[in-house]
Amino acid sequence: MSPNLNAFVPAAGIGERLRPITLHTPKSLLPVLGQPLLSRTLDRLAVLGVDRIGLNLFHKPDAIVSWVKTSPYRERACFFTEDSLLGTGGALKNAEPFLRETAFIVHNPDILTDIDLDALVRAHRASGNIVTLALHDFPAFNKVAVDPAGRVVGVGEVVAASGAARILAFTGIAVYDPEFLDFLPHGASNVVDAWLDAIRAGRTVGCFDATGRLWHDIGTPASYAAALVDTLRRDGEWIYAARDVQGSHIELDGYVVIEDRCTLGDGAALRNCILVPGTRIPAGERCENAIVGNGFHVAMDEPEFLGHPVTEHGIPIGVGGSGRRYYRFREAGGTVVRMVCPPDEADYERHMAYSAFFARHNVPVPHLLRHEPHARRAEFEDLGDLSLYNYLQFPRTADEVEALYRLVLTRVISLHVDASRHVQECELLATRLFDFDYFRWETAYFLERFVEGLLGRHPADRDALNREFDRLARQADALPKSIIHRDFQSQNIMIARGVPRFIDYQGARMAPAAYDIAAVLWDPYYRLDDAMRERLLAHYIALRADREAGAFSTPAFLDALLICRLQRHMQALGAYGFLATVRGKPYFRKHIPEGMRLLRQDLADAAGAYPAIAELVAAL
Prior knowledge:
Elements: E1 5-10, E2 31-32, E3 35-36, H1 37-47, E4 53-57, H2 61-69, E5 77-81, H3 87-94, H4 96-99, E6 103-107, E7 111-113, H5 117-127, E8 131-136, E9 144-146, E10 152-155, E11 166-176, H6 191-200, E12 205-209, E13 215-217, H7 221-234, E14 239-241, E15 251-258, E16 263-264, E17 269-275, E18 280-281, E19 286-293, E20 296-299, H8 302-306, E21 315-317, E22 325-331, E23 334-340, H9 348-360, E24 368-372, E25 377-381, H10 388-391, H11 398-418, H12 427-430, H13 436-452, H14 462-477, E26 482-484, E27 493-496, E28 499-502, E29 509-511, H15 514-521, H16 530-548, H17 554-581, H18 592-605, H19 611-618
Parallel strand pairs: 1-4, 1-6, 4-5, 8-12, 14-15, 15-17, 16-18, 17-19
Antiparallel strand pairs: 2-3, 6-11, 7-13, 8-11, 9-10, 9-11, 19-20, 21-22, 22-23, 23-25, 24-25, 26-29, 27-28
Helix pairs in contact: 3-6, 11-16, 13-14, 13-17, 14-17, 14-19, 15-17, 17-18, 18-19
């Protein structure tokens, strides 16, 4: 917290480079996954404990004032209207009586960043600077020359100024002492000129180095699209749809943002699209690589929309938890997905062997087109980007959801029954057992990576806990085995042209089929309605009973299911802990509450059979 600090947010700009979008919405109110840029900026400033917040106004001022007056910041906001644009310096001079009160921070609202503002303010106050600029190394915008002591010595074209050690870029965030206002003329001016005047007068304009922090400049339609895509990726998502979005039988693919009050006609299709608030898409219309609103359609090419350069392997895709990398590669006749594995990828040969085996027995996996064992690369049929998880991010009717899950369960029978009858054809799979040791590895993983690693908790009676983990593993190992996917959750089930296909199956093992059903119907990634889950479970059981005649026992399967639910949910929580803490993917934390809820329900259904595990989980 920084006492005696005001803030100033330059919100007057017309957003000329963002036209035609800003003809409808002021730049500061452009939404980012349901929250306007201005809201995100004010939330960041509020953490500093700023006393008052000034905003200058020119383009669409009524919209900005209206938004602020319904926000939590309405009591702290002061508005400074400009009859004509006064520029970055004139805006501050126009607010001089307000800014004279105390030190102030200026934060452009048209950036997405996680720069540590509290550290910036503390650095400024300890420095004696008249201004401290948050700078970073961003080659496209590098124009600020800084000497070895961190003092700004020049601003302009990227040339090494006298005494400059580095050339950096301004982030749009700075802290000022009130005396800086003396260097600003009345009327329109550029704040950069005042920085240079202050330096020539012997005052210090300092640098706070924010290199490496998240930063997006929302200056053009392409940079807006790329910023939203990056925001989705950082949250482990592909699709954002506001709660009030309406539409049925909607086809989605790629990265899609649908803001509030949008309506999509039946059968509309979106791929790599952003719909601004209130957009109406006609029935059957297809939009791709575009920002769309009522009255405008800003199209761009795919790399531009995604903000990803085209690499030698293609355009990067995927946000999963593995070390493998996937790319969409364009070749004659369409696109393929190229998988590039690290040199130590242990599952590469298994992945290739499983792909060929599953294809022979009609397991719905992508077709393996070619592979290069020495390079640890392979190319697969492109199934698009719509996983079952992504499909469920758009509001769907209960009937649509249940119908798709029924299709998923119908198709997994080909793995659990048909391919399993021929497993001896694939030695790598036939000999890969989900045995006692592996089940025990899962519960040890849960303890090490989640309970201790993420939560920092330690069981009071480890011996009792290990005895129950051992007993659970023995029970699981004793169950009948068939081929299972092993990670059969919604993110590993693709929906290609309305048909489920399975990916990420290189972890397949010989294990109880109930483990896959526990993974997909009790999935922490998506909470199914309990009644729907019961109907889906009955559907799977009926299919198995029909396929295997007298060889399938419903009571035995249901007993196995509870054991597998316990194992699966502890494994999943262990994975979330590992991915969040070791792999640096904090977005997996958001799935922990549902994973914990499911594990507690498993233990309740076990009716006291595992008291030590239940005691541990109750204490978390």
